[in-house]
Fold this protein.
Amino acid sequence: MKSAKVIVTGIVQGVGFRPAIYRLATKLNLKGYVRNVGGSEVEIWIEGSEENIREFISHLLSNMPPPAKIESVHIEFSNPRGFRTFKIIPSAKGRIYRSMIPPDIALCDECLAEVLNPHDRRYRYPFNSCAWCGPRFSMMYSTPYDRENTAMKAFPLCNYCAGEYRDPNNVRRFHAQGISCPQCGPKLELRDGSWKLVEVKDPLKEAAKLINEGYIVAVKGLGGYHIAALATDDDVVIKLRRRKSRPTKPFAVMVLDINSAARIVELNNNAISILTSMERPIVLLPKKKDSPVSKYVSPGLSMEGIFLPYTPLHYLLVADIRDRMAIMTSGNAKDLPMCVNEECAKKVLLKFVDYVLLHNREIVNRVDDSVVRFTSGEPVLLRRGRGYAPKWIRLPSKLSRPAIAFGADIHNAGAIAFNDKVVLTQYIGELSNKEVAEDLLKYINFFVRVYGISLRNSVIIVDKHPKYLSRALGIELAEKYGVDIVEVQHHYAHVLTTLVDRRLWSGKFIGLALDGVGYGDDGNIWGCEVLLIENYSPKYKRLAHMRYTRSTGSDRDVVYPARMLIYFLSEFMDSSDIRELFTRLGIMKALPLGETEFNAVITQLKETTPVKISSIGRLLDSIAVLLNICHVRTYEGEPAIRLEAEAKDGRYVLDERLHNRMIMCGEGTYELDASPLLKELINILMNGSGRERDIKDLAYSSLVTIGRALAAIVRKVARGRRVEPYILMGGGAVVNDVITSTIKKELRDEDMYVLLPRKVPPNDGGIALGQVASLLVGELIE
Ligand SMILES: [Zn+2]
Ligand SMILES: [Zn+2]
């Protein structure tokens, strides 16, 4: 007789791990126990013959439930204690027990097979789930993940389901917390535009029929309400755009399966594995020329955002819709959080939709669909919601006290942190109104409560931007509890995010932040920063940045990028030349008040104290308007996104040495000067032949030139410095495929490798991670 204690770390709680261990141990006639310990560990004690113990260990990894992710296995042999049975026992008592809140897991193949099998008792059951799949975070009131802590507590198990729950041989339902069936689980209903119940036998089939007829239907899903409509009918899409007052912001399209996906986008193995992953995000992929999707779904863009059904409800609905695809966009009013309850659906969604398909399970926590794109061939998160949040992320060492980070105002996500763990909230939204602010506080409070954080012993972290609402919320909380507040510079935080995300624990690094706006240490607006960072220290050095452009600092500058273009051009042109250019190129109409606004901008720029800007995002916006690609920003990042879309399939047509002329020696730093690029573009637009003026080529060449100039600057600052061979990129603009691919290619020859974050978005949605990491200085274990 031998015995062994096995500690398994990773995603091993809430995914049917302990039942799988139970089955394996009993099959091999081993005695002992399995229990959850710590936050993301399972402890197994086994006793039996040496041969069986060895077999247990060798089968451990191959017998795991599909959603489990094992980080490490630690085995210790010792003396048997004489166990007579093998048991799943409750977690250890008398210690602070913090169990990781599992994210929602997409419908598994086995559950889908049951739903599609006419002889199965769960045939066409929209809420089928098992230990391997189904809602988790979105329906949890508190930890641990037990049925009574979830919205499923309102649905007691019927005898049949209870039997499965108790049966150790039932691989997917033994001890599975969220299971149900048509007899005991949630129910669907359909309501019309006046919230009157539509009496039908199968509300799901009826909803699909209505969508096929061109109606717009709100659908209560897993983490919130969606709005569903035909994606293949121009009139329907235009109707939806009109009702939502959403002229161009792309809609996501849910497709039944990979075959349907292949009809509308270019797929590769990498894309397929993300589309079918248990996180099942929206993935932005290149459109196919003969795609049946209406051009109004994502106007002016080269990519379509598509995703696969992640609950049986979505699968069954889309299966009955024409072309097996439908627009499935967040059910919200502009800038407000997605609806999660019937009160909101009645108040907000009935303005946009004709019918509502809903169910009677409470959505406890809102989780938006996550969004992934590819940049330079690698997947990058644009929005971290369902499937990813709220998995925690490890720090290199323990914090001396808990921390609460408030993120930034665009793409907001906050974070709480304790020991060596950072829990980012799910994507909250744009912090531009009180509803979103309330949501941020709600989820920060939720995580503070379930993880047992003492606010009085915490430190609160905010962005430096004096006008940020996130900052005001953080300061308010700090004052209420009388705790310390730490301000963290925006781009330093971006770079730290990448550092922690990519698990680079110490050393001297060059960070490259490419961004829209961030408040700089000198009170100017930053957004194109080359920083030298050593061991997370806030004593970073700003080695290079974009040359400052003087602006009026108006809120209209971001919405109407032609105003920004005036600022850039004013650095080297006089106002009469700019006016002539605007008139000849038809840019004057990009200003809502035309020439009146033009004159006002010129006067303001002369007469007021300028706000100085060093932002790559604003440069991209200006190029988009100069090339007449986008005149108004109707959604975050639109001009830059459409510039990138236009650059697809472009050729390089500018002077090959142009980027060298863009690098200037500033006061002890290098500066990137956009003027030579803009001059060259203007010269071609005003004097070039038709072929030279090809917008695709000019868009592509501009982005390549910017990438080359940035790479050249990085090369210059790295020279003579003993830095690690990694360039840590962060900020909203690093997802630009042409810029980042160019930088990557240029630097690879110098054995320098460009890294982007993988677990969190490089945009402000991931900045809270870097904010927390800023506390690590001096706490590193060398
Ligand atoms: Zn399942
Ligand atoms: Zn049941």
Summary: Residues 108, 110-111, 129-130, 132-133, 172 surround zinc ion (ligand 1) (CB under 6 Å). The first helix runs from residue 17 to 27. The CA atoms of residues 121 and 424 lie 39 Å apart.
